[in-house]
## 1
Amino acid sequence: MADAQKKMTVSDEVAIQITGMNKWYGTFHVLRDINMTVMRGERIVICGPSGSGKSTLIRCVNRLEEHQQGQIIVDGTELTSDLKNIDKVRSEVGMVFQHFNLFPHLTILENLTLAPIWVRKVPKKEAEETAMYFLHKVKIPEQALKYPGQLSGGQQQRVAIARSLCMKPRIMLFDEPTSALDPEMIKEVLDTMIQLAEEGMTMICVTHEMGFAQAVANRVIFMDQGQIVEQNAPKEFFSNPQSDRTKLFLSQILGH
Amino acid sequence: MPATPTEPAFVRREMLAQKLPPVSERGAIKWLRENLFSGPMNSTLTVLGLIAVYYLLRGFYPWLSNSVWNAESYRECRDIVIAQSGEGATGACWAMVRVRWNQFLFGLYPVQEYWRPVTAFGLMLVALAPVLYYGLRRPNVRMVGAVTVALVLALWGLGTDTSHLLVCTAIMLALTAVAWLAPKRLVWLTLLFPLIAYFLLWGGSVWGPVGVLIGIGLGAGAWWFAQRSFGVVVAAAIGLAVAVLWWLVLHTAITSALYAVMPLELPYVRSDDFGGFLLAFVIGIAAITASLPIGILLALGRQSDMFLVKTLSVGFIEFFRGVPLITVLFSANFLLLYFLPPRTNFDLIVRVIIVVIIFASAYIAEVIRGGLAALPRGQYEAADALGLDYWQAQRLIIMPQALKISIPGIVSSFIGLFKDTTLVALVGLMDPLQGVTKIVRADTAWKGIYWEPYIFVGGIFFIVCFGMSRYSMYLEGKLKTDHR
Amino acid sequence: MTIAFDAPKPGFRPSQLIYDTRYRSYTIQVIVLLLVFAVLIWLLNNTIQNLAERDKDINFGFLFNRAGYDIGQQLIPYTNDSTHLRALFVGLLNTLVVAFFACIFATLLGVTVGILRLSKNWLVSRLMTVYVEVFRNVPLLLWIILAFVVLGETRPGPKEFKVTDEMVAAGQQPVGSMWFWDSVAVTNRGTNIPAPLLDRPLGGFEILGVPINFSVLATLAVIFGSIWVNRVLVARARAVQEATGDRPTTWWKSLLILFVPVIALLVALGFHLEYPALKGFNFQGGINLAHSFTALLIALTVYSGTYIAESVRAGILAISRGQSEAAFALGLRPGRTMNLVILPQALRVIVPPMISQYLNITKNTTLGMAISYLDLKGTLGGITLNQTGRELECMLLMMMIYLTLSLMISAVMNVYNRSVKLKER
């Protein structure tokens, strides 16, 4: 895994720029003054206790949640209430959810080709070829004609990753992709994600898999109470945490 | 199991063979014991049940077994029963159903035009084929072919004149060919079917329905062009405006001009002449097909974030769910004409169909809302994250699942709706239950008959409704793809 | 709640009305509003023109005119000299009384059938299935008309109940006989049942033409009082159980409290039943129920009973077998298991569909019109409408009344659902 780190390069092009972003749920201040810049090819892991706003933060990046203050620029497109911009960002940014959210009424292949056909207007045949390519990549091409309900959790999550990839996104968001999985299935999903990282995909992952963070992340961000408390390169972050909150969190999560 | 320390060690050398259970635990005796006499309470219930069955059979069996199928009046029936089984015997008089069969089916629809409703019914089955098996060649051809054969036989049996028989056969053969060559094209028949059915059933000039079709076509065209640059909702408004303009300004002039040039028409049949199961099916099928899309829109409206849309939908749904159907039907009879431009006077059946559609869509909307509520939030989010817009997400992701969840509810609404078509008798239409039966019972030849017509009509309703509910159960099982 | 605090881009482009999520929903709502207004104005305009053309106006004054028609079944005094408004109330009460009894009987029937359908007894569960499927899949109107026709055509006339001296001498039985120990007579003209009468009634008075009967009020007061005292007793028993662990025996005390005071009051008032008897050409005495009422009641009961049976069955099936096994494993006896574990959960599933069935029963009473039962639909929406020609007013008023009834029943359902939900947390 150590050589994996070397292969991955970061360009000096900005992929995501968040400045002075605030968000409230009613009167509850969920995200407070978030500033962060993600370069193209960067892999960022966000961790923190539950309720710290980390999921909300990445859901703001493709506007599943609306922010009320500040600026989010994704790939040069600012996220405002303009629908055209939202559509543009969403087709550039892939997202993988904790509970997979595959469409249970469609086969795996249909799940993968749906968005390319209807959003990108790709011909069906081409979309299916792309879908099979990515299914090979996540190592389950033989499941193409099954329904999501017939697959294991790990397989479903890999299908979900392939589904996002079929849109040829430039950025991938992962929202706790392994939290709903059994221990033996976590590895197969993480392997897929590492493979993706090695190919230079820009990734933001909300996860508690610290091994993954150490292996592929350029940066680890620790969040608590809706704010970024600490961010650092993984080596520094784990060996020499600065803030007390981070220390407490790391001792709890790595303590057993 | 107190294992005493003195018990010796034990090893089994030979495995025991399987043995039959004791006599009291197998075969018919076991079944009886378990299912009928498992305890004093159960035995009592069994005895009571047997007594009930005995009384039912004692009352109905002789009556049914003495059924008379050939007679010209109720008195003749009785005489036959008495001649067969002696004084005091009872017997069902199904001869009435035989004699009045046509009226039960068609009401007072002109006899020489019977081919029209029958053809409409056949075409409906053909129109259903692409809905059930979209794009699949073999089942489509099989279904259309079967309908063709059945329809031609039925028309021939009804004594249809040769020219109409030939035209219908030709059309059906053409449709079979379409199903064979391009099964997807059959959808066009499904879309056109409402207008074709209207023309076949009511008759009149062919240009009326054609004009309506042109209006719809213009509206749809306007929608298609506007939708690219203005979004679906605004485009719908524009399309509607175009269609309304056509109907209000140009429709009458152009259709009457066309009629003057080419007077194609079928003899007009008045609504008063519709009756029997024809009426029940026309109202039921029209209301079922139209209420589903309207119900979906209402359910979406009720789920909407937009205050105005939501309020309007909720108000509409709750109003129609809150009032009895009869009051709505009476409104169609008394009030609808107040709300339309002066001196418009359109057909009572069409008015009834309109209000029944409105009424049923409120119920369907609630059923679909339940299905929408059962969908996990993640499905909406995944659709959003993939960049699908609202209507794409609804059409491709949300509705297929929500509708599948709501199948039992939707079908039971349909069953309720079909049963409710009997209520149209109360606004003066001739439904099979009240309208036709009343005419039969008022006839001196059949005076005093009451079980037979009700059992006959009830039996047909039972077959249709029971069939629908079983079909929905089958469909539910078949569509189950998520084995979660 | 889309409030952007960052400075909006200078300049407002019209295309934002469609592509900007902030304005888009307003655009759509404005279009919807305009369409709705256009339709409303069109309808209103048509209505006004139509009314003008027919020389009519909208005026509810007719409600205070003389009705001039008779109503067979009246729970409050009414003659054909009364106003249309009073006829409306008589009809409304007729709607409510038949709905009330149909709800009670349908519940009794439905709960029994629902439980029997789940019974392990093969024969009984099959019979119940047949009953449910047959009655559910045939229109209610058919059952109503069939019940009415059968009652009217198969029952003997009153004179066939007569026992003459010659028949006694010849040892013959009359064609018709009364049921339930000579207390109920069902003839082809109607049904006579015993009437409760009081020797020493407490009297009463009238408010706005509505009679208030002290005897009834007193009886109700005693019944509610007993129920309240019984609840206190049960609450106390529970308190004792919580304090000491032993539950005192209460069932005989409950029985005494619930029944003795009512019986004592009725005896004091001189309660007795007046039985119908054949006098001359018809039965006299007791309460005479028209066949339209009886037939509607029977049909509503057997039809709605099937739906209630299905919801009871579904409710019990929804409680997994695991629940009762868990309760048994904890050592609860079957009775306690039912009361403490199964019923509280099953009721949560059963009651909402049951209430909506009550709503359906209330709406379905309108079908009584087919057999000339004069309910609200028959009076206000039937004879009054035809006599006065005030279609708009009558239909509007009638719909509003039915809507109010429905909303009241829905409100009850919401209250119940909310109370159940609270218990869930």
## 2
Amino acid sequence: MTMEERFQNRIDQDLKIEPKDWMPEAYRRTLVRQISQHAHSEVVGMLPEGNWLTRAPSLRRKVALLAKVQDEAGHGLYLYSATETLGTPRDETIDDLLAGRAKYSSIFNYPTTSWADIGAIGWLVDGAAILNQVSLTRTSYGPYARAMVRICKEESFHQRQGYEIMLTLCRGSAAQQAMAQDALNRWWWPALMMFGPHDTESTHTEQSMKWKIKRERNDNLRQRFVDMTVPQADYLGITIPDPDLKWNPDRHHYDFGEIDWEEFWKVVKGFGPCNRERLEARRKAHVEGAWIRDAAEAYARRQSEMKKAIA
Amino acid sequence: MELFEVFIRSRNGLHHKHVGSLHAPDLEVALENARDVYTRRSEGISIWVVRSKDILASNPSEQEALFEPARDKIYRHPTFYNLPDDVKNI
């Protein structure tokens, strides 16, 4: 048996791969790409929500949103750690993001123009992310799977706080209901796009399924999301902006319209409404945070010198 | 910044368990960062941080040499010993 066959054998038996185990270079590369993209998504994902931190309508909403944004920073860190176990230094991973070489979830390239967007993001964006992440708790690379377990545990509050915001707006004044509807109109299609291209179009799906990096196909997850979300929208009393959406009793699933793939690829390629703004914000934060990293290093150096002097 | 591994005891009576890693300039700051990153929901009552470079890990390719010898020593397990069913509490 070659190393590669032995590796595949382990995967087929559902055994996890751990950092020091032998793995094909392409497996390592795929993981580094996927986990770091996932990490970047958590980090960039803080930006659209950060936009509303100072303008949350009540203290209750504000502490919740602050905790959610803090969680996302934490999730980014778990994932950067997981990337690092594959031998890629963290500075390199972060440089890739700042230089615009790395991708992150396109959903964060859409603007948050009203408070209702914070509700819609928690409900739809975190809802879609949870489906994907729950499937990834069974991914073949141990550190990634373990990070996913932690993240999923923490995510469920994110979705519930989002839905609660939507519910409050939908039980409120006509203007608040209109706000909620408008947010759904703008976030529905980008949320469906989060699951990626059709499996038939997806370049990585087959190999990733074989290696069990990916455990479910894009279209399956997307269908599950639609099936899950439609009744939730009905309960809110707002309308999903898809004229083709209807229950199919034969399939026992909702049928839904085709995604605007042109828009999807446009945003992926960097021409979405906020791509440039998001990267600029990240770069600015990185540069403006340099002094604190330097100060921490200097303090650590001084402390160790002082300890040596005493000893 | 250095890499640190983080271990957390979730409650008294349990072992510290590895939960992940983080970057910090020194041990003290690593401990503070570990609190923020890994115990936001009261996941622990005690934290250990260790410099990753101070950990010596066994090599997966030496797995056989290290762990095989235990496999054929079945006399280390209680089920190896045949006792009549009539004998109780043993």
